[in-house]
Amino acid sequence: FFTRGKYAIIVGKILSGIRIRRSEVCVIILISCDMRRGKERAMSIITKLFGTTSEREIKKVMPLVNRTLALEGEYAALSDQALAAKTAEFKARLADGASLDDLLPEAFATVREASYRILGYRAFKVQLIGAVILHQGRIAEMKTGEGKTSTALYPAYLNALTGQNVHIVTVNEYLAKFQGEQMGLVHKFLGLSVGV
């Protein structure tokens, strides 16, 4: 990337790994710009080509989300007892050397089905994306009404399988009491203890 006069010139290959012969034409994008705004325009084009940081992060977690969603039919067919027994199964697999990341799609599918049976709704993709991000120890920014409380169910369940305490913290006292009790029904159904 370099600038000359009123133009920012970006020269590059479209696909890495493809050798460009001298007889072939390189891709050259000319952007008419004021030098003060040249960087923003160049970054805008790069963002359009490669996506934002958030979009790239979401692409990384989507395989886990899609694996979770693919299990819906299988888990919907389980009886209440068989679904609740998944907790003991997961704990046994952890004891045998499986990691929490290995169990993530199945554990999330278990919570998703239990949530449907107890509360009447399944998590959407945005909630599962947030749940994966939280499990990875990162921050998930969600808008009002996107289901932050139900998103927390998933990583809380997964991490509670280790036998250690999991704490969900909110600054809203009403949400802590009401949602804690309501969402706690899902964890209780799956054999975990809950305190508010």
Structural description of this entry:
This protein has 196 residues and is mostly helical. The chain is built from eight helices and three strands. Strands 1-2-3 form a three-stranded antiparallel β-sheet, covered by helices on one side. The chain is globular. The termini are far apart. Mean pLDDT is 79; it is low at 1-35.
Radius of gyration: 23 Å
Can you count the helices? 8
Note the main sheet. Answer: 3 strands, antiparallel
Strand residue content? 5-15%
Q: So what's the overall shape?
A: globular
Please state the average pLDDT score.
79
> Which sequence of SSEs, written as H and E, runs from N to C?
EEEHHHHHHHH
Helix content: 55-70%
Low-confidence stretches: 1-35
Number of beta strands: 3
Q: Termini separation (Å)?
A: 56 Å
Biggest β-sheet: strands ordered side by side in the sheet: 1-2-3
Helix/strand/pairing class, anyone? Answer: mainly alpha
Secondary structure: elements and pairs:
Layout: E1 2-4, E2 7-12, E3 27-32, H1 35-50, H2 53-70, H3 72-76, H4 80-95, H5 100-119, H6 125-135, H7 148-160, H8 173-189
Antiparallel strand pairs: 1-2, 2-3
Helix pairs in contact: 2-5, 2-6, 4-5, 5-7, 5-8, 6-7, 7-8
What attributes does this structure have?
single chain, 196 residues, mainly alpha, three-stranded antiparallel β-sheet
